[in-house]
Amino acid sequence: MSFNTFGKIFRFTTWGESHGPAIGCVVDGCPPNINIKEQDIQSELNKRRPGQSKFTSQRKEDDKIQILSGIFEGKTTGTPISLIIYNKDMRSRDYETIKNKFRPGHADFTYLKKYGIRDYRGGGRQSARETASRVAAGAIAKKVLENKLGKKFEVVGAVTQLGILGCDTKKWNDKIIRKNPFFCPDKSIIKLWEKYLLSIRKSGSSCGAIIEIRARGIPVGLGAPIYAKLDMDIASAMMSINAVKGVSIGAGINSAQLTGEENSDEIFQKGKKIKFNSNNAGGILGGISTGQEIIVSFAVKPTSSILKKRKTIDKFGKNTSISVKGRHDPCVGIRAVPVGEAMLNCVLLDHYLMNKAQCG
Amino acid sequence: MSFNTFGKIFRFTTWGESHGPAIGCVVDGCPPNINIKEQDIQSELNKRRPGQSKFTSQRKEDDKIQILSGIFEGKTTGTPISLIIYNKDMRSRDYETIKNKFRPGHADFTYLKKYGIRDYRGGGRQSARETASRVAAGAIAKKVLENKLGKKFEVVGAVTQLGILGCDTKKWNDKIIRKNPFFCPDKSIIKLWEKYLLSIRKSGSSCGAIIEIRARGIPVGLGAPIYAKLDMDIASAMMSINAVKGVSIGAGINSAQLTGEENSDEIFQKGKKIKFNSNNAGGILGGISTGQEIIVSFAVKPTSSILKKRKTIDKFGKNTSISVKGRHDPCVGIRAVPVGEAMLNCVLLDHYLMNKAQCG
Amino acid sequence: MSFNTFGKIFRFTTWGESHGPAIGCVVDGCPPNINIKEQDIQSELNKRRPGQSKFTSQRKEDDKIQILSGIFEGKTTGTPISLIIYNKDMRSRDYETIKNKFRPGHADFTYLKKYGIRDYRGGGRQSARETASRVAAGAIAKKVLENKLGKKFEVVGAVTQLGILGCDTKKWNDKIIRKNPFFCPDKSIIKLWEKYLLSIRKSGSSCGAIIEIRARGIPVGLGAPIYAKLDMDIASAMMSINAVKGVSIGAGINSAQLTGEENSDEIFQKGKKIKFNSNNAGGILGGISTGQEIIVSFAVKPTSSILKKRKTIDKFGKNTSISVKGRHDPCVGIRAVPVGEAMLNCVLLDHYLMNKAQCG
Amino acid sequence: MSFNTFGKIFRFTTWGESHGPAIGCVVDGCPPNINIKEQDIQSELNKRRPGQSKFTSQRKEDDKIQILSGIFEGKTTGTPISLIIYNKDMRSRDYETIKNKFRPGHADFTYLKKYGIRDYRGGGRQSARETASRVAAGAIAKKVLENKLGKKFEVVGAVTQLGILGCDTKKWNDKIIRKNPFFCPDKSIIKLWEKYLLSIRKSGSSCGAIIEIRARGIPVGLGAPIYAKLDMDIASAMMSINAVKGVSIGAGINSAQLTGEENSDEIFQKGKKIKFNSNNAGGILGGISTGQEIIVSFAVKPTSSILKKRKTIDKFGKNTSISVKGRHDPCVGIRAVPVGEAMLNCVLLDHYLMNKAQCG
């Protein structure tokens, strides 16, 4: 049981509030003798950092990571890796107006009812700022997996739907993803998304998104039956990300509409390799990886902090309304891409180690 | 870490193979002094039992539950409750033909590659027969929640989409659900579903489904931030059910298409009660229950065991094909309804106890 | 968190009451492809079985084990192994007199106060009968370790002190242990122990004991720093056995009286082998195995069920007295030997798998 | 499974090496709305701090604690509490001589063999410096327990044996303990201990100790049967402390020498209170607290870093010898007192919360 820890063997515990002195995490169970530099973590964090384009929050955080333990002479030692990011651009005055009001769509109401106290500044612990810690932990998992699985291993995420505008995933191009502010994998729709999101922002509104993460170079056999299924832990990982409301593996929700013969992926042997004619399973059968690409997608709801006025109550139970000013992302889904990648890296490493334990 | 255990405080461990002597589970962490009779469990199991209509497997199991421990003079004692169901109608000869072939869409391939050995009879541990144990554990969770939360508490599930045919969830009627073989909540579509599923079965094919589970009478405050979110554990629970490929909470996947003002549920106070204008959140904000109805839906892929011939390989790597005979459900999604209810009951009780631990 | 589960990767969950229909356990996380027969488990159980000599309880249980799952064609499949022992010689009438009285030294009082209900028959869940499940789980762990560590691996336990009479552990002889009813390793003291224990029993009293367990053929590197220390888990395992009140590793409690130079084991290399001049560490340094023999001892308090009259209260709070009749061991410590061996086997396998996960 | 986390509901994860930039811990599962100031933690840390008398290490650390999260306006919020202590007086040059040699009695050998790498500076992660984090976590547990259990609750530890010199525990006096540098509870022996320890130090040697911790004001019902026994978790907690080799509950190891009537504590009712005639059980029966004083003692081996020359090998396998210079405690057991108190506070709070979850 662990409120703020994720993982079973490779585990990380995050801590910190949006407007406290710092945030961070402790990564435990990392194999020893893996080369890790602060820069390896920093470069992943930079993907998630706010203030990088006009489409994300204008909060200016350089999100500079520091390693406090667990690395000796550039290598992991098998002991816990403590990571810290000091908070900088905290404009707490922005939040005074919402000190007593519950923002619709946010956890203000539930936190206060549950705990009887909450750090309202910037959303406190609810803030998506916590996801920086996940990205840092994910950067470590990625380095370990690269070391253990070799060059074929990679995890790549993208936004495949922005509000009402889906992209064509058949045009997925890894190289495009990092070159546009939307992590869009389909070059042909970028311009349209740009216009759309600008209009959303201009209207003081926000939109949702669908993110898809793909993992390649995964061996067959990761995951375990029944209650340690790989897809179960992936669903759990993605649903733990702020604002995520749905998760699909492979054909996902759409598989409900398929017939048995449309859905089940045929198997064949070509040379010495086992292949599949399709990948509706998303690379997972019976909770265990098939060796195919692992495909997971998740839906992020629209940013709840919007300029448009919404009815709500204050903490004294009085009916009122709220219009949330401040530096908010018009689509929080965009910055969820590196977070989803990080979580998938962590789940995969965790299952890699679990598989080694029982079947290695 | 636990391959075959679900839950944190209220935990159950399942065991058993489809064609072994028995299946069962051990339920741990159950509060003491709760009245539980075998019949309370049996009546839940009867909902899931095969052979009840022409739309489910014709395997004849009476699924008779026996309580072996943890109940004394009709009450729980706080010690582990061991439950057992002896297997009866095991026609192992049905499975001789698939002993060496991997059924597409099944975990035959991944189990053998992972473990180097597998009990192929009836799918062994992969078989959905394991879900009987979940339903038994869920029956106990339900009794405890009824005791702790009172009369308003209830969990009700239904099939809301059968293959390509969705029902109208606005017409949801609890009473209808138990009166038709599809657990359909919308009376107007039952006839159509009947025709549709008969045609699917006749063609030797199968179809997927979407199941929706609703929980009422849940207090505000269940769930915990970050990595013990209520929706995270619900997603994990549902994804652990055989053949599930996607999970949504509230508006779920659809929330990606909404704007901020469409999605966030407005709050108001009426009399002394806090109310919401809508429930896109599915009763969960920031991982914590709001006091609204909790709404979860999940997609079940079409049954992979179909008569239609599919390409595959055998365990020696030779290309071949397979047509799976036997007593299979044309839509496994239907029997997933009581399983989803059971899993939700278990997650809710677990979080009820967790909340009591930290905040009670 | 788990009330009735022991272990991290190799885990077992026990269930059952002394006078319920059966007891048993579910073993999870067992590596696949290990040969295990019912007889392998039965032969370990036979060591613990009551009624084998006049020095142990006269309850007649044949303790016949049945495997219900997880083994296919004689081999483990990696799925949970469910084991069951049906209770037979339950003379519940023996316990009617203690239905309402708290036996001093027993958990009658604490169970009732904690749970508000208890199965008093034969001690219910408190009964040492639960340890049969541990011995069964330990038999499986032993088979796996023999497979993984080879012929040098063995775990051997003995009683080294019976009441006030210690044996000479320098005369420890494995072969002697199984040939006397006390599991005594020192041939020269057996006769004396026999007289002593007969007199204890005759007087309606009981005595305590110290048990020592040794594990050989353990590689260096099992265990992990800080909160997964091998000795921490061994202490926990032994303290979980009924009536155990103290645990020592190596020199143990006596190390308090040593000086630094007396205590620390000098290291030297001979040929290509690393050796130690002594083994005060009991084979564990910093929570990690050194490759030496692992030595653990634990103290078992005298049987609390004695004929001699003791003051107590009944459940209504009235002062009274009790004299416990029935079939009790004059020294429960004797039957704790196979239980201690089983627990050590389980801890060692668990750490073997954990080490493989992170450092394998 | 967790290498560096202790606890089940109230959990803390420690990190940091002796000569890294900082050490610290993350405390999770803490109930909300508890008043905690940095000073509450600091005052506990000051008890453990080195350099306070000539009988402990002369390393000068002010061990200044900083709270980085989880406390808002002086109160816990239910979110993780991150604590950090920056390292200051690190004389890494002291350790250059032991870079390649394994110190007998230390974990140098086992860490290197296990991980293939180790931070040798000051013992790295093996260093007892890690225990400062435990004391900090324990200070939080103490504040919560004081809030929940009221004024009668207190945990007090003392050294009851220094090397070969035991004190008279019948003379135990809480007030004496904090007034002497040995945490000795028996005024009459302090002078003798002083002479003894000075002679030990002068000779370049060291000695072991026995520490006893007592907890008062504990309600009946904490702990749970079988594998969540209170004494099991206490044994585990104490054995996790550096250099601890044995743990006793109540009469502990000595209970082996008692008869049944000497050992079992008689119960009687006086007025409306349930009392016991003795406390050989150490306040725990069947793993559950009786409401009596909880008494645990543990043996700490003598400091392994001594001036006296000891045989060892270097990491290349060459036979050599070592004499460890530096600022070492002649008896590490003394500083284990506040650590033992902290661990007991943590275990008790954890079980308090667990009990509330299942039986509250």
What does this structure look like?
The structure is a homotetramer. Chain A has helices at about 40-50, 110-115, 130-150, 175, 190-200, 230-240, 260-265, 330-360, and strands at about 5, 10-15, 20-30, 65, 70, 75, 80-85, 155-160, 165, 210-215, 245-250, 265-270, 275, 285, 290, 295-300, 310-315, 320. With about 350 residues, chain A is of the alpha+beta class. The first copy, chain A, has a 5-stranded antiparallel sheet with strand order 1-2-3-7-4, covered by helices on one side. Chain A has a 5-stranded antiparallel sheet with strand order 9-8-10-16-11. In chain A, a hairpin with a 2-residue loop joins strand 5 and strand 6 (about 75). The first copy, chain A, is globular and about 70 Å long. Strand 11 of chain A pairs antiparallel with strand 11 of chain B, so a sheet runs across the interface.
